[in-house]
Each structure stands twice: as C-alpha cells, then as structure tokens.
Amino acid sequence: MEASTGIPEEMTEPNNSGDDDNEWDCAEEKPIHGANDDYGSCWDSVTKVGLVIIGIFLFIVVFWSACLSRIIIHIMIGKLNPPQTNNSFTLNKLGGVLQIQADRMRLNVCGSNANGCIRGQVLRKGLPESWECHNETGTSCLLWEETPSVNVGWIWGLLIIMSVPYLYTMTLSLWKSCFKKNKVDKFDLKVFLLSLIIEIIHSTGLCVLVFLVMPAFDPVSASVLPFFVCFIPVLLSVKFQVKQEENTKMKKNRSRQLNSTMNGKVKTINVREAPDAAKDNRFMYDIIPFIGAVIFIMGIGFLILYVYYNSEKDNFVTTLVLLLVSIIMVSVIWWENFVTSNITKKLEDVKQQESFLMNYVKSKRDTVSILTYFLKIGWTFLTTLIIYVIQSKESTLATARTLLYLDDAATVYTFSGSIRLESRSYITYGCMTFNPYLMTVVCFILTFVFFKASRFACRIVLQRRSFAPPIALNLLLVPFMFVILMKYPLSFTVEGCSVLQPLWELDYGNSVERLWPLIVSGFLGLVSLAILTLYVWSTDGAKMEKVERLFMKPAYCGVFLDLFLLLSRRRYLFDVDYGRERKADDKPKEVYSPLVYFCATMWHETENEMTQLLKSIFRVDMDQCWKRQVQAMRQQHVRSFYDEDIYDFEVHVFFDDAFKPRKVNGKLRNGRKVNDFVKLLEECVPKTAKSIYGNYELEPVRKFETPYGMKYEWMLLTEDAKLIVHLKDKMRIRHRKRWSQVMYMYYLLSFELNKMRPRLEGKCKELSKSMKEMVHNLSENTFILALDGDVDFKPEAVTLLLDRMRKNADVGAACGRIHPIGSGPMVWYQKFEYAVSHWLQKATEHVIGCVLCSPGCFSLFRGSAVLADNVMKTYTRTATEAKEHIQYDQGEDRWLCTLMLKEGFRVEYCAASDALTFAPEGFYEFYKQRRRWAPSTMANILDLLLDWRYVKKNNDSISMLYIIYHIFLFVSSILTPGTIFLLILGAIITAFPSIEPWLALVLNLVPVIVLTLSIFLAKEDTQLTLAGIISTIYSLVMMVVLIGLIKEGVESQFCSVTTVFFCFVAGVFVVAALIHPQEFTCIFHGLLYFLAVPSMSMLLILYSLGNMHNINWGTRENKTASGQDEVIRKKNKLEGQTCSIGDWCRCMLCVREIEDQSLVETKNEAPKDTLDTSDKNKVDTTQTQTVGVQKKSSAEKKPTPVATPKVEDKTKHGDFKNCEDISEEERKFWKGLIKKYLKPTDINPEEQQRVQEDLLELRNKVFFFVFILNALFVTIVYVLTQVNAYQGTLQIPLPCNVAGGEQGVIEPISIAFTVTFGLLLLIQFFGMIYHRVSTLTHIIASTRLEKQTQIKRPTFGGEVGRELSTAIDGDLESTESTSKEPEKFGGGARKGWGKLRASVQVSSALRAISGERRKKPEALEKLRKVIKAATKKPMNSLQDEGDDDIFSRYPNTPVVIQSIRSLRKEEDEKPSTSNV
Q1: Cα Dmax for the chain
Q2: How many CB atoms lie under 10 A from the CB of residue 1014?
C-alpha cells in the first residue's frame, strides 16, 4: 500500500514516540551475519608474528651473507701477496704483530726407524699430510717459501666475483630492451659516453685497489680500507647537505600557526614545536655533514700515518698515491646519489630547466647499460692483465701467458717483494686449483643472497630493522673477526686445505704500539661513514616500490657490496629530495589522492546478498573516516604527513529493471513505481548502516528524478562520501550489466572531469602545468571498483588493490582473490575450482605476462585506462554479428580486459586482496552460468591470439613465450573432452578386464551421443536433466578410476606413468594448499572435484558449445525479493471459481475471459527485444536488449506512446511525486548519453531473424569443429592402443617391473594425457611459487607493528557501537542515559548491565524489560565528532613513541592533496559544457 507521501509505509522512518508507547515491542532484529564479519582476526595476528619472524630471518641472512662474503673476498685478496720475512715491509703483517711461527716453517724428518718413527717420515706436528714440502732434505722438510707462490686461480676468482654482477645487470637490461620495449629509453650517445667514462673510472680504480693496494695490507687492515671508499660522496655531502627533516615532538614546546590543506580545505591550526628548532635545524643540515667530512679527513690522515710507519721508504709514496687515487676513482660511481635535484641551470628570461646531468640521473639507461657493461667487463679483464704485466720481473709475455694458463710460472714484483705466479694444480698448504673457484662460487651465492635480501627488506618496509642494522654491524665486526681468524689459522683448515696463512699468527706482545693509527683511522672512518649514510635510518623503505626507485644505478657490485647498497640507496623518500634544505617559502608538496568509485550492479539480489555488499561499503566508510582523522591529527605535528592508504570514494549502485507499472485499486495509473527489490534495498541500507555504526543512523534518503529513472542518495560517515543508487527504468534506458558499466564509465569519468574544466584551467595556471598533464594525473589516480551486488570484502582488500595500481602506472586493472560462498555440493566443488584457478592459472598469467580476465565482481580499473582509445568507446558497441553477441554480452568483464590488453595496459592479480561472493548452489544454475562463461572465454582468447602481432607490439607484458603458452593452453582446452573420454575408457578397461576395448568404447560413447542429440533436439531443461543423470553415472565411474589408480600404484610401485602423473598432480595441489594456509581447507573438496571431472571437463563443454545461440543471462532470473526460490507465475487470462489439489489438478467454474491489465502493461513496457523460443532451434534472448541494431534514420523509429514517456508532461506521478530534480547540466548529459548509446533498442523482425540464423550457424560450426577434432584425437589414440595391444610395437619399455614381474611400459593413452596436461601444470606450478613470494612480500609490506593508540580503533565485525561506547560514555552521554533508573543489579540499569556484559551477553529485549530505556539513534554527524575526539585523546595525554617514529620520516613541509573531490569543492558555480 502506498503512503500519501509517495513512499511505501514500510520504508518510512520509525517513530520513536511510538516505541515508547509500545513497550512490549522490545525485541530487535539485526542484519544477517555475513561470512566476512569475523573473518581474518586470527590471520591478522599470524601475519604480525610472521612479520617479526621474517624480520629476524632477514636480519640474520643479511648479516651473515655480508660478513661471510666480505671475509672470503679479503682472504682471496690476502692470498695475492703473502707476507715475507726477508724485508722490513710490515704493512701486510699488521704493523709487525703478525709473526711467522718458526716451528711450522721447517719440519723434521726421521733419520732412523726408532721409537715408532719410520726412516724418511716427516714429523708433521699435527699439520695436514697434504702440505707439500718445497725444500726437502734428509733431515728437514721446509714448508716456508723464500719467494712465495701465488696461484692465478685466486686472481681469476676475484675477476669473476667482480664481473658476474656486471653480467647480471647487462642481462637484465637486455631482457628489458627485448621484452619491455615501450618502457626502455632510447639510446643516447651523450648518456652512453658519460656512463661509459664513469664506469671505466670505477673499474680502473677497483682493479688497482683489489690487485695492487689491498694485497699490500693484511686482511685486518684491508677490511678497514672500505670505510674510506666514499671520498666523493663525503665531499658532495658538504656541498649538497643531506636533509634530515625536523622532527617536531610533543615536549614542553611552544606553539605557532600554520596552514594545513586536507580534502581541499585550508585550515589554520596550532602546532607545537621545540623552542630551538631553528638551531637544531641548522645543526642537522649544516654542521653534521661538515663534521662528517672533517672526521673523514682525519681518518685519512691517520691511515696515511699507519702506511708511513709500516712501509718501506722507497715505496711509501707509490703506495700512498695508489691508495688515494684508487679510493677516489672507486667513489666516483656514487656521485649521482648526492647531487639529485641540485644540478640545474638558470637561463636568462627562461624558467629554471633541468640540465643534462639531471636528465642523466633520471634516465633509465637500460639500452645504454647493455653496451656499457659489456665494455666494462672487457676493461676489467684488460686492466687486471696490464697491472700484472707492468709488475713483471722477467718477461712480460711470460706473465701474460701464465695468467691465461698458457705457461706454468712467472715472477712479478709487489710492494713487499717478489712473488711467483703459478698455474699448476697444486697451490699451497693442501689447496688445489678448484679451491679458489669453489670459494668464488660460494662468494657469488652469498653476495647474490645478500643483494636480494637487502632489497627485499627495503621493499617490505623493514629497512631500519633488517637492512641498515646488519650492514652496519657487519662493517664493525669484520675486522674483529679477522683478528680471531689470524690468531688461530690452523683451526680453519678444511680437508687439509688452509686458505689463510697458517705459518703466520698474531703476536699481541710484539709491536702493538704501531697499531694505534690503524685503530683510530678505522674508528674515524666508520663514524664518518655512519654520518654519511644517516639517511638510511630515516625511513623503513617504501611498500612494494620498484627497485629502480629505491636504489641508484648500479646497485650491485661483487666487491664492497655492503657499501654499494648503503651508498646506492636513494636519499629521497616519497618523491621528497633529501639533498637540500627547504626554505620557509618552499612550495607545498603536491600529492594526488586516489578517488575510488565503488560501482555495483544489482538486479534480483536477495536481502542477504544486499546486506553483504552494504556491510562491506560501511566498513570501508568507517575505516576511511578513522584514518582521515588520524591523518589530520598527525598533520598538525608534521605538515607533510600523508597516509597512502587514504583515498576519496563514492558508492554508486546501478539497479537494473527497477520499476513496475503503477496500479491503484487494480487499475493502471500514470507513472511508475519501484519494484519489490528496490524496496528491499531501501530497507536494508539504514538497517545495515546501524549495525556497523552502532546507535547512529543515516540521514533520510534524498530522491531525484533522472532521465533514466530515479536516483537515491545517502550521505555517509566520511566527509563528502555518498551512497548513490541509480534506479534504471528499462522503458527509458537499456538494462543489463554492460550498459550499466557504460553508464558509470561515462558519468564518473568523462562527465565529472568535463564538469571541472573551468576549475582545472585555473589550477593549471596556479601550478604552472598544462591541461593535458593535469587531466592525465587526475584520471590516472581515479579508479573504478567494479562490484557485484552480493560481494563481501574488507577495507584492506581495496588498499591492497590500490597498492598494485600505485606500484605501476601501466596497470589498467587489478583483481583480487574471489572466494565462492554458499552451501551444497556445487559450492564445495566451486571452492576447489576457484582455488586451483587462482593458485595456478591466474598466478601464472600474472608472472609470465598479464591476467586475461579481471572479474567484474571485484576488480579495480584505472580511469586513464578506461578512457584510453579503443577501450571505453569500443565497449559501447552494440552487438550485430553472432560472434559479437558471444564476446560482448556473455563475458563483458573479459572483453573489457581484452580491450585494455590490446592498448598496452597490464592486468594483474593480487592474491592478498580477498573478496567473497555467492556462487550458484544448484546444478542447473551452475551449468547455465558456465554456458555463458565458456564461449565468451574462448572468443576473447581467440581474439587475442589471432591479433597476437599487434598485442605483442603494443603491450610490453605480452611476449612470444606468453602467446605460445596460451596457444598450447587453448588447444589443450579444446582437446579436454577427448582426453577425459580416453581417461574414462582406460579406467573401464583397467577396472573390468573382461570387457573388450571396443565394447568399452561403445559404452563410453552412448552417454556422449545421447547428450549431443539432446542438444540439437531437446529443450534446455531436458539437456540439463540428462547432463545431471550422466554426471552422476560418470562420478561413479571416476570412483572406479580412483580405485584403479590406487591399485595400479600399489602394484607397479611408481613403475607406471599414470601413477607418477597422478601423484605429481596431487602433490602440486597439496603444495599449493600448504603455501596458501588461509585457503588450506579447499583441498578437502578436491575429491569432489575429481569425481566431477567428466561432468565439468567433458559434458559441460559440449553443453556450453551446443547452446552458444542461447544468449540470455541464465542466473537470478527467477528470484524474488524475499529470497525464496519460488517462480513468479503468470496470471491467467481467465477468471472464475477455482478448486485444486496442490499443483496436480485444478478446476474452474463460472469461467469468464478477462484481459489482465498487468500483462497488457508488461507487453507495452517491455522493449521489443525478446524472441519466440517455442522452437528449440530459435535463439533464446529473454531479458536481452542488445540483439537489434538501431536504425540510423530517426524517421524509421516509431516508438509506441506507452513505451516512450512524455517529456513535456511535468506532472510527477507514483514514486516520482516527491522526487527532487537533478541539475540541468546533469540532465542534459544523461539525455545525450541515452540518445547516443543507451536508448532501448527496437528489434526489427528481419534483423532478429538474421541474428537468430547467424547464431545457429556459428553454434553448428564451432560445435562440429570441436566434436570432430576430439573424435579424431580419440580415434587416433584408440587405434594406436589397439595396435600396441596386438603387436606391442608402440610401447616404450621402462627399467622397472610391475606386479607379476612384467616389465613396465608406456602406452599411448598415458602419453596423451601426460603430454597434454603435465607440461602446463609444471609451468603453472613454478608460476604459482613465484607469485606466492610476491604476494608474501605484499602482505608483509602492508603489515604494521606500530603501537596502537589508547582508544581502541573500531573493528568491523558489526559491533562498532559497543567498542566506541567505551570511549564516549564519559563525554557524550545522552540525557536518556543519565536519567536515574531504579537501582537494580547494583545501582542503576545502565551501570548494572555494563557489568553483566563483561561475562554475560544480554539481549536488547532483556535490557528493555529490566528497565533500561532504549537509546534513540543519533545522527551520523555525531559519530564523526566522536571519532575525531577519540583520535585526539592520545596526543593530548601523552606522546606515542610510534607516532614519534612516524613523524621522523617526513619533512615539515606542507602537503597539498590534489583530487577530483578537492577540485569539486573549489569549482565555480557556473556549469561547464566544454569537453576534456
């Protein structure tokens, strides 16, 4: 019954006074508990524990890999110049502390057979037998060499350690140049020459340092030299001071005023700052870098003093010059990290422009790096050869030939004397030639692990926990580790090989006073290095950031990798440069805040499904409101604080077929009224909101009349956020999901940007930007979250998808992990099917290329990608050809992704983002759903494969390997029915040996032929009935197959290919479940999945291809608003007195014929787009509006008066009576959009007949092709099997025996099944492993361990009101709460129940009966104030250490957040009609 206000009575607001009168009506009903309400609380704790474990693990890995790699490198360098006793050179003897052990120089030899000593036996004194004597006499064995021998294997090992990183970088650059052509900058000769000069200088200095200078030192002193390999960065840090931003903390501070910009509003706020902030600022920016440089120079001075004391006079100058020159040349490589954003030049009368050097710093240099590093590798080998040739004592040619393993030995000079280069197999002290190369391999593995683990720590926001501390600790402890190693060299002998100098040990009682310059030098060098790299302690890194944005080029060097990682870590964070101090008049930092449009499509959702979606939306609303208040609070202390998880959002729900005819007393009247589904949604919105917000209610709904129907609008908790429901009238606009998507794409992207054109022009002048740049930035940060009407998700799921978008601007769409929910066997099957498809298929597509389909139930689309050429415009096409009906309307989300892929955008899969959606629970509904999906999937994949050259050229993420993979996958999917048929055939033969193969073939063919005939002769319901019966039979057969496989496995003991493959498949699934612990329970549904393989992989494909011509939706068509499964029956055209026995028999008396006005109205209102489906072979297009083609001539269109509303009639009727009017600008937009793209189509009978015939023809062609192809495949394999059975010529023997002692063989059936699926599964397994590591990185990077604020943040389990009530009871208690009640239960109803609730759950009814008055709902605005007060409380009471830690990462520079919403607030009142 319709109320006088035009709103149904059940939708009017409750009367609070009525509630007081009806005290007996005290029970309450809460919304249905959703599947996601309490999901994940346990896993949140597990994730935090995992973060701690991973942090500790990374710390250990980084520390020990850094230490061990440094130790190995210094040991190898020390082997190049062993200490000698025949000179006064003590630089490689630790200033004389390293002393030779005389008792190890010469070993005695037995002269007679006495006392157990055999004549001629060497008395080893515990030394290894493998140590060879150099000068053996009858009485002694000399281990010491007067001229030490050095094997060239040590030299080549160091060369390999130095060159492999260059080769790695070159390979990566070559890969990007070949497969990422659009992301690689062009070859620039100037950039190449500068890069080559810098790399050559670095390579030369590194070779001199490694092969000349460092061998002149012992390992302890040599491990101190890297502290000074930062000469150029120290000098540049004085010129371009490192910016450590002011950390304003809450102590006893003074206040000042500043402007903070948030959400487009400029507010004046009071900020407390330290009184001596300016002095601290100057000390931080000016004094500390200068002090660091002074300490560095002092350290160099003490190092020179140490060299002077311990080197010979004739080579002191040479040693000193080479030392200083080499460290300067090596440090050149880091120059660009210390001059960023400071290399500029000013031109007269021209704005400041970037110089060539700045362009060089910003360039990717991938193309240049290929040739640069190739030349650098060659130069490194050439420089090393020149160094040793120059030092030749004899023939330079002999030295060169010895280094190249062409001669046996050569003598060269060093600073400590002569050494003998040898290339023979034996080295010294029991070591052989392979030992240096073995150490080289170990060192390379350690450095690579160190390199990857360090970068990983920065990407998961653990830089200050697992990157900087272990590296700093490594630099400090390596010299002390060498002290222990050199004190006890014999303890580190492995299998007779000692890589140290075992004849030398540290003697602390000798010449220790000569070490003080080295100790002081090392301490000062370490302090200066710590000051230089203070910036690595200022942040935890960047979440999921690209490595190129975290580290400068190059970041990988085999020698001094710890220093390379520290000094290559970029000094600026979040696009803020730390290379200079900002002045007070610096421009505020500009940040583009994402705007996410939540766009859901609804049709016939039940109350439970609607509630599930609304709960998700209100959770997001609460989460964003809380984060915004926290951000506003923190911006009062650090103006540049910006939470990347905050975004603007609006919710738009597009409701299809939302109206029905308006009737009064059974008679039709003017106007339309909303149907029962819309009324149900209108009831669900305030009720669900109250369950999330607590005792706070939404403002009354505002209703607007629109050209497409009606619009409902609710204001949400977050400032300026709205929930808008667009009710579509199919009389005025096309319905179906794709056309709803076209509506919100044009409305939210094109219209909204176009409306802001005047404001954008002013903003461009203000920011000195072009209109194209401004629009591009806004559209790139505008996103559409496509949702189904029943989806359930948590707020974190949206931010995780935004992380994917933020990481790579080329990502056009990102989808999450979809979890089917519901009950029954069909849902159980889908749980495993969804799990396997996401674990394996989507993960592999993401890794090796792009995801082909981002499902429309929960996917995020980038605005700029949707607005790209050939995407949104092409998406509005009306299907005219048969294949277009299949591709466009049966899988609209897959087609949209296909358009994006063709235009070069990536589609990614984010496994950490979870969403739940209801799945078909019945067999018929499931088959109908897949009947839509299967043909559209094949059509879109085939479209990409046929156009592979254009796609590969235009999209960097799609390579030829990816195309081949999908060709293989496409062919295997076509042959899947034949493969499953052969599997069942083989199972029958194995399980029933008495059945002849031909008879087994016939028995297996019968159900397939029956289903095939029914496809062409019977109705769809009959087909589904037959498919259900055959599926049941086949499930029993699959149980026989399972038993047969187990029996064969036990008997053959893995001597059967089938058994091995079955175990491989099962193992892959088990491993996949283990690495997805949250989804591990899905593995238990695998048995049902196995039993349903024939039904889903053979029968379903035949059914889907055989019903391609049926393009109706298939699901939700018979649901009612109450959620029951009953079918809405049509009213009879006859009226009379009836009697019936259930639905079996019905009689009618006093019959008279009537004309049902509702049917007349339904006929008039329905677009003429439904086809007669009485004939089986006619096309079923019920509820389809895209079959017909609009006539180009408006004269040919003659709409009926009923179907076309009278525009000139301004009188509002029905539910439109009390609606407001939208703006004229918006009305004009909708009319233009409807006229051009969304006008309901009139179906021409001739066109209808043509489309019908085309669809049937396409169905026949595709079905015949697939059927014949599978028939040929089955025939070939069957014939080969029979030939092999009679002749045994085609089988391949295996080197094992099966049961009975017979030799195992491989048969054609086993080969066909294994080859078809085995390789694909193996590829997908490795793709899953790689993607899982990426997902783990994302999860860990998004997990925070910061200390929570004092007021507990609201959870999202539907009980927010309870948790917030504890925070506001003392401040915002209502008058009803404070009124005195009878003192029961310990003094006052409110207090008494508060105590009981700690242990007993008390219902609302019992609270009311006990005397507690029901608290009236309050406005949502009050909840916003409560949250604001809750966020301010902790900062007013005490300083949170976690906030101090956060504040220290940001500069105190104002931040201006740019977004479409902020620009909307500033736009002019004058409407704009120009186009963007």
Answers
A1: 139
A2: 22
The length of the chain is: 1476
pLDDT digits (tens, 9 = 90+) for 1275-1292: 888 887 777 777 666 666
Among the ranges given (31-45, 127-141, 1237-1251, 1383-1397), the one the predictor scored with the smallest mean pLDDT: 1383-1397
* CA 1169 to centroid of chain Cα atoms: 43
Q: How far is CA 98 from the centre of its chain?
A: 54
Residue 657 region by backbone torsions, left for phi larger than 0, else alpha for psi between -120 and 50, else beta: left
- How far apart are the C-alpha atoms of 250 and 1440, rounded to whole Å? 9
* Residue 1079 DSSP class: G
Please give the pLDDT value at position 1388: 36
pLDDT, tens digit, 9 for 90 and up, residues 146-192? 788 888 999 999 999 999 999 998 888 888 877 766 666 778 888 88
Give the pairing type, strands 722-728 and 709-715.
antiparallel
Distance CA(559)–CA(547), nearest Å, equals 20
The two tokens of residue 1197 are 């269109």
Omega prior to 993 cis, within 30 of 0: no
Cβ(97)–Cβ(221) below 8 Å: no
Measuring CA to CA, which residue among 793, 812, 863 is closest to residue 648? 863
- According to the model, what pLDDT value does residue 512 have? 67
Residue among 107, 104, 102 at smallest CA distance from 121: 107
Residues forming a β-bridge with 432: 426
pLDDT (tens digit per residue) in 368-378:
888 999 999 99
Show Cβ contacts of residue 917 under 8 Å, excluding neighbours closer than 6 positions.
Answer: 788, 790, 791, 792, 818, 819, 820, 821, 857, 858
Q: What are phi and psi of 1027, to 5 degrees?
A: -60, -40
Closest alpha carbon to 1203 in 641, 732, 515: 732
Nearest to 901 by CA among 852, 868, 937, 860: 852
Hey, is 138 helix, strand or coil? coil
Burial tier of 84 (Cβ tally within 10 Å: 0-12, 13-18, 19+): buried
pLDDT at 1065 over 50: yes
Q: How far apart are CA 1436 and CA 1448, in angstroms?
A: 19
Task: Judge whether 815 and 858 are in contact, CB under 8 Å.
Answer: yes
What's the pLDDT score for residue 1406? 67
CA angle 1128, 1133, 1138 (to 5 degrees): 80
- Return the structure tokens found at 513: 């006073």
Are 107 and 141 contacting, i.e. CB atoms less than 8 angstroms apart?
yes
3-state SS, residue 609: helix
- Residue found by looking up tokens 């190898």 in the block: 76
Between CA 1280 and CA 1172 the distance in angstroms is: 48
Q: Kindly list the distances between the CA atom of residue 1102 and the CA atoms of 457, 514, 971, 1011, 1269, in Å, as whole numbers in the listed order.
A: 51, 89, 16, 8, 13
Tell me if 1231 sits within 8 A of 707, measured CB to CB.
Answer: yes
Of all residues in the chain, the percent with pLDDT exceeding 90 is: 34
Q: Cα–Cα distance between 698 and 1186 in angstroms, integer?
A: 38
Q: 1400-1409 contacts: CB < 8 A, separation 24 or more?
A: 1403/27, 1403/28, 1404/26, 1404/27, 1404/28, 1405/26, 1405/27, 1405/28, 1408/23, 1408/26, 1409/26
Instruction: For residue 492, give both structure tokens.
Output: 């580190």
Residue 198: helix, strand or coil by DSSP?
helix
The pLDDT tens digits for 1159-1212 are 344 444 444 343 433 344 444 444 344 333 343 333 333 344 443 444 444 677
Please tell me the distance from the alpha carbon of residue 482 to that of residue 98, in angstroms, as a whole number: 12
Tokens of 1235: 């006229």
Q: Is residue 910 classed exposed, middle or buried when 0-12, 13-18 and 19+ CB atoms within 10 A define those classes?
A: buried
